[in-house]
């Protein structure tokens, strides 16, 4: 309850109780708020704590971040460092590799500089220079530079020590650094861009070799990495300079020394005459004075005069040795090679040395086998060497023995034999040390030896050099107190390739001197045995022969010597036959020399590869082709040329070329067609490509040569100038094949070779003699004596084709008349004629001195189908044999070659004896046979160069013999001179006729064969006939 | 008394050789060059000629060739004397027509032998 004033009507006790309650509530509230406040404070504190924690965490995270970043940076730096180290190392390695290269100094320095400036990680400019030191003046010479700018090139070309930064680096031998164009930059120009340098001295040990100068940007900080790198590279650069300067200095010194040496030696060599002349005077006058003293009885002078003489001789020996030695040094020693017998030389040497042997009371023993044979070497030099060894042996031996032993050591594999000369003595011997100095000039054991034993100290050195020049050597074995043994080994066949450093080799065969009047042959073959064989057999045939063992040597000799014929081996190792052939045909100087290609498989089976007459190289040179054609066609265009070539374009071109010159041309696109064509219409010459499909050139030639009718057609082979390896292999393969297929024995090959060579040299002579005026005899008429008009027709047609004029006679009488009137080049004579048979005509012809020299070809015709060629005799002689006539006939067959034995086939021993006497006196060798059969045996053993054949013989008469002979391809070409009786009685004549018929039936030939044979004989005569004028004129 | 013509340009060699030959009983005429040698040979017809090969004016080879080409001097034997002892020279001398050949330094007895041989070969004139 409350009043209007709101005062409550409560009692004071109630009011107090209410106050107490209120006070309690307030204190409770107060306490609550205190608690709350505490709680709040606590909360705040907690919050503060948390905040602090948070802050700490943030701080530590930040730290971590910083650390990581730092590590990253470091790692990056490290990586960069690794990378830059790597780059630096790479450059340094490259420089090291470069330093080992064999290049001129300038190049090496330039490239090194490039490398130094190429390191990407360094902040160097790409500009710099390298200087070397000019030794004599303390000046830096600019050797290499990169981008230093024009004006500086001038001024920095030569920088004195101390001048500018580089000069200072040189002077102080310390790295110089600048980061601006400052006072230290003595060399500068206006407008020069701001820059700095590192200048590093290039040092090796204590030597300054140069300065490396590198540009840096203006304000660049000096950097230890850079500096380390630059120092490392400058070390390498210093090494390079040192090495190359050394080499250059050495080289210069050597060149100078060589030049001086050579000058000195040349001087000495030329002084030979001057030095010897006064020596001769000293020796001569002292000898003369000795003689005069003796005469005047003044014996007191003699011993002194002898001393002068001895000293003079000694001095002369010294001079000779020194001159020899200086000639060796000047490279002016010449070898004079000749073939000589070893025994006589040994004999000679031992005779000459005998006074020296006796001087020290020694004994000389000589062991030399009787069959030691001969050697092809320099006689004088071998003698000198032997003499040297023997006189040494005698000098150093007292009361002992000296042995000279000679032996031949057979060569191993393909090498030639060696001749060994050994000189043994029982003298004082040598120590190891003395042995080592033995062959050196001017040492002789030691100085006291020289004084005691005399000599020049040069002898052995010279002897050894001579032996080495010949491809041999001198070796020594010795023991002190036990004596010495010196051995000279010389190849039995010294030649160009076995000797070294030869200036000139003079071949002195002593057999056939090279030159005019002889047929000369150059043999190019790598096999020494083949060379030897061919040489010997050709020399026997009176050819002069030179040899080369390989293509290069062969070409050199061909150019030098101009042989008449070259025999070229196809299968050679280094430069094969084809390459040599191409080279020969490409050189206008030697292209005209006919080349016969052969190959030899082994001694047993020699093969004959190609029988081409000549070679042309593609692309075909028109002039060359015309020259060759002229050679083989004798200038007349009567015949046709067969072009065998698979390439259409080439074929057309050649056809056009030839037709333009007036020749008639037929073509074939391969070998097979070519053969057919050649057989059908005999060309006068064949132009043959080697590489063709179906049947290539080789096979073609082989086929051609196997056919009697075609084999004598000249074949000019056309080869590509540059054969590919494949081509060459193919060719070689074919050659081997052909060679294996057609392997002939030795004799056949040589026979074939002779033929070809004869043909070529004969051709040459033909070309030469063609210029001579024609003799009185009409040289192109052929007289055909035959009763059958059909034969007249035939002969006319075939022979006129070759440019001959054919005159016909129908009987022997008419024939003789015409022969006397016209004096034809040759006569063909039918054997079986009715009125006056062939033999009678023949006798009459041979009895008439005017006509006796005209070659007579006897033939006959059985019937239209079977023409027979009875006799292939080249000549006929009448009995009794006139000596002069015989010799003139033989003389005809002497030209060109084939000076082999003459085979006399005759049953009458007395006649054989007479013939032998005449022929041997003429200088030829003779074989005999008493009948045809024996003759055939003889021929098989020793092919004769000519056969003298009696017709009437027992067992096998002349006809049969001829028949047999003509069957054989090789034998048929041996000239046969038939000897017939002048007066045949009826019986004999009948016998002859009978024989003729018989032979005809046995061996009938085709028409073509016959005429080819006639043709061939006439051609052979034409050659032989023209070279010698008829005896009667 | 056989007459020998000595063709030699070197004075000392000439002196030595002529005196020694004279002492051996030969009558010695001398020439100092090739041309003089040929002339004297023609005019005096010596019995033998000793010809040095290296001579002035006309060398020994050519002089010999000329002498051997003329009928009046062809038969006089010629011995070539030379300082070069190489085989090439020997052949050259023989080719020029020399009858014999000797090398310097002269070995007097040897040379005498050759002279005697050649003089004995032809009939004494």
Give your account of this protein's structure.
- The complex is a heterodimer of chains A (1033) and B (125).
- With 1033 residues, chain A is α/β, with parallel strands linked by helices.
- Chain A has seven domains: 9-100; 105-250, Beta-Lactamase; 272-329; 335-491, 2-Layer Sandwich (Heat Shock Protein 90); 560-768, Response regulator (Rossmann fold); 772-869 and 1005-1033, 3-Layer(aba) Sandwich (Rossmann fold), CATH 3.40.50; 873-988, Response regulator (Rossmann fold, 3-Layer(aba) Sandwich).
- In chain A, the strands form seven sheets. In chain A, strands 3-2-1-6-5-4 form a six-stranded antiparallel beta sheet, with helices on both faces. Chain A has a six-stranded mixed beta sheet with strand order 16-15-17-18-19-25, sandwiched between helices. Chain A has a five-stranded mixed beta sheet with strand order 8-10-11-13-12, covered by helices on one side.
- In chain A, strand 5 (195-204) and strand 6 form a beta hairpin.
- Chain A is elongated and about 220 Å long.
- The termini of chain A are far apart.
- Chain B has 125 residues and is an alpha/beta fold.
- Chain B is 46% helix and 19% strand.
- Chain B has helices at 11-23, 34-44, 60-69, 87-96, 108-121; strands at 3-7, 27-31, 48-52, 78-82, 100-103.
- Chain B has a five-stranded parallel beta sheet, with helices on both faces.
- The termini of chain B are close together.
- Chain A binds chain B through residues 272-273, 276-281, 283-285, 287-288, 291-292, 295, 316, 334, 336, 338, 379-380, 506, 508, and chain B through 10, 12-13, 16-17, 19-20, 23, 54, 83, 85-88, 91, 104-106, 108.
């Amino acid at each position: 309850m409350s009043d209007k004033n709101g005062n409550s009507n409560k009692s004071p006790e109630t009011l107090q109780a209410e106050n107490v309650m209120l006070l309690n509530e307030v204190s409770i509230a107060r306490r609550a708020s205190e608690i709350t406040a505490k709680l709040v404070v606590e909360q705040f504190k907690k919050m503060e704590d948390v905040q602090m924690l948070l802050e700490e965490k943030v701080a530590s995270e930040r730290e971590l971040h910083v650390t990581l970043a730092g590590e990253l940076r470091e790692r990056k730096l490290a990586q960069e460092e690794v990378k830059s180290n790597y780059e630096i190392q790479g450059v340094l390695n490259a420089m090291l590799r470069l330093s080992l290269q064999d290049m001129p100094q300038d190049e090496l320095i330039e490239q090194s500089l490039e490398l130094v400036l190429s390191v990407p990680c360094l902040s160097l400019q790409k500009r710099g220079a390298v200087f070397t030191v000019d030794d004599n003046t303390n000046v830096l010479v600019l050797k290499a530079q990169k981008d230093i700018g024009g004006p500086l090139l001038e001024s920095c070309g030569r920088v004195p020590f101390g001048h500018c930064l580089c000069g200072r680096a040189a002077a102080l031998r310390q790295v110089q650094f600048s980061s601006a164009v400052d006072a230290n930059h003595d060399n500068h120009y206006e407008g020069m861009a701001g820059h700095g340098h590192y200048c590093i001295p290039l040092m090796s040990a204590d030597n300054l070799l140069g300065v490396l100068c590198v540009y840096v940007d203006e304000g660049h900080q000096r950097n230890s990495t850079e500096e380390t790198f630059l120092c490392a590279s400058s070390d390498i650069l210093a090494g390079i300079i040192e090495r190359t300067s050394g080499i250059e200095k050495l080289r210069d010194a050597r060149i100078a020394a060589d030049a001086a040496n050579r000058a000195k030696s040349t001087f000495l060599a030329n002084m030979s005459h001057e030095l010897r002349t006064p020596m001769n005077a000293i020796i001569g006058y002292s000898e003369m004075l000795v003689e005069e003293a003796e005469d005047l009885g003044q014996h007191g002078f003699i011993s002194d005069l002898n001393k002068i003489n001895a000293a003079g001789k000694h001095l002369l020996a010294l001079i000779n040795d020194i001159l020899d030695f200086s000639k060796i040094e000047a490279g002016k020693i010449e070898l004079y090679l000749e073939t000589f017998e070893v025994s006589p030389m040994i004999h000679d040497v031992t005779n000459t040395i005998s006074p020296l042997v006796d001087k020290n009371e020694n004994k000389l023993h000589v062991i030399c086998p009787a069959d030691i044979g001969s050697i092809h070497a320099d006689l004088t030099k071998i003698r000198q060497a032997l003499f040297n060894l023997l006189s040494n042996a005698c000098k150093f031996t007292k009361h002992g023995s000296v042995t000279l032993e000679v032996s031949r050591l057979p060569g191993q594999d393909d090498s030639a034999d060696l001749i060994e000369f050994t000189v043994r003595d029982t003298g004082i011997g040598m120590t190891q040390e003395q042995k080592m100095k033995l062959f050196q000039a001017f040492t002789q054991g030691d100085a006291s030896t020289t004084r005691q034993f005399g000599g020049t100290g040069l002898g052995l050195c010279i002897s050894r050099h001579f032996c080495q020049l010949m491809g041999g050597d001198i070796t020594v074995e010795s023991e002190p107190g036990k004596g010495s043994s010196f051995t000279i080994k010389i190849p039995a066949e010294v030649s160009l390739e076995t000797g070294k450093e030869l200036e000139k080799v003079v071949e002195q065969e002593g057999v056939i001197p090279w030159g005019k009047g002889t047929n000369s042959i150059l043999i190019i073959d790598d096999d020494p045995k083949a060379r030897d064989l061919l040489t010997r057999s050709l020399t026997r045939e009176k050819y002069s022969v030179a040899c080369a063992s390989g293509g290069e040597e062969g070409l050199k000799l061909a150019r030098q010597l101009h042989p008449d014929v070259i025999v070229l081996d196809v299968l050679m190792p280094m430069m094969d036959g084809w390459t040599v052939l191409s080279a020969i045909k490409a050189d206008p100087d030697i292209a005209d020399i006919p080349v016969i290609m052969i190959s030899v498989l082994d001694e047993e089976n020699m093969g004959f590869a190609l029988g081409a007459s000549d070679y042309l190289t593609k692309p075909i040179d028109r002039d060359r082709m015309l020259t060759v054609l002229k050679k083989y066609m004798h200038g007349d265009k009567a015949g046709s040329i067969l072009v065998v070539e698979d390439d259409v374009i080439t074929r057309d071109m050649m056809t056009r070329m030839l037709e333009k010159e007036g020749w008639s041309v037929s073509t074939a696109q391969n070998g097979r067609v070519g053969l057919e064509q050649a057989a059908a219409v005999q060309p006068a010459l064949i132009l043959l490509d080697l590489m063709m499909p179906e049947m290539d050139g080789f096979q073609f030639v082989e086929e051609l040569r196997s056919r009697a009718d075609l084999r004598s057609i000249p074949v000019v082979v056309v080869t590509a100038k540059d054969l590919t390896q494949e081509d060459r292999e193919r060719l070689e393969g074919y050659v081997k094949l052909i060679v294996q297929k057609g392997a002939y024995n030795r004799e056949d090959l040589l026979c074939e070779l002779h033929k070809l060579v004869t043909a070529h040299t004969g051709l040459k002579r033909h070309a030469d003699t063609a210029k001579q005026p024609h003799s009185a005899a009409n040289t192109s008429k052929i007289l055909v004596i035959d009763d059958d008009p059909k034969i007249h027709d035939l002969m006319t047609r075939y022979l006129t084709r070759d440019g001959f004029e054919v005159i016909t006679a129908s009987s022997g009488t008419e024939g003789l008349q015409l022969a006397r009137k016209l004096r034809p080049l040759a006569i063909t004579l039918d054997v079986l004629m009715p009125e006056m048979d062939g033999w009678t005509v023949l006798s009459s012809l041979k009895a008439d001195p005017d006509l006796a020299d005209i070659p007579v070809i006897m033939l006959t015709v059985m019937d239209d189908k079977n023409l027979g060629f009875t006799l292939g005799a080249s000549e006929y002689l009448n009995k009794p044999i006139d000596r002069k006539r015989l010799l003139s006939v033989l003389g005809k067959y002497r030209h060109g070659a084939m000076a082999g034995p003459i085979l006399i086939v005759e049953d009458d021993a007395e006649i054989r004896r007479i013939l032998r006497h005449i022929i041997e006196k003429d200088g030829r060798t003779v074989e005999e046979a008493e009948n045809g059969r024996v003759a055939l045996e003889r021929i098989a053993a020793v092919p004769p160069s000519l056969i003298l054949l009696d017709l009437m013989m027992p067992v096998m008469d002349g006809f049969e013999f001829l028949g047999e002979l003509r069957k054989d391809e090789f034998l048929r070409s041996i000239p046969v001179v038939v000897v017939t009786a002048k007066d045949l009685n009826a019986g004999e004549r009948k016998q002859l006729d009978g024989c003729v018929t018989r032979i005809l039936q046995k061996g009938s030939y085709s028409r073509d064969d016959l005429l080819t044979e006639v043709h061939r004989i006439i051609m052979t005569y034409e050659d032989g006939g023209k070279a010698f004028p008829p005896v009667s004129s | 008394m056989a007459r020998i013509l000595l063709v030699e340009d070197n004075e000392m060699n000439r002196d030595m050789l002529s005196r020694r030959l004279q002492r051996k009983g030969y009558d010695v005429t001398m020439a100092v060059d090739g041309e003089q040698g040929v002339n004297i040979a023609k005019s005096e017809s010596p019995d033998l000629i000793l010809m040095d090969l290296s001579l002035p004016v006309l060398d020994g080879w050519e002089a010999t060739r000329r002498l051997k080409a003329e009928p009046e001097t062809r038969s006089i034997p010629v011995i070539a004397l030379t300082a070069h002892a190489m085989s090439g020279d020997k052949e050259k001398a023989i080719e020029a027509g020399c009858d014999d050949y000797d090398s310097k330094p002269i070995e007097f007895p040897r040379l005498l032998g050759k002279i005697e041989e050649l003089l004995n070969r032809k009939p004494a004139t």
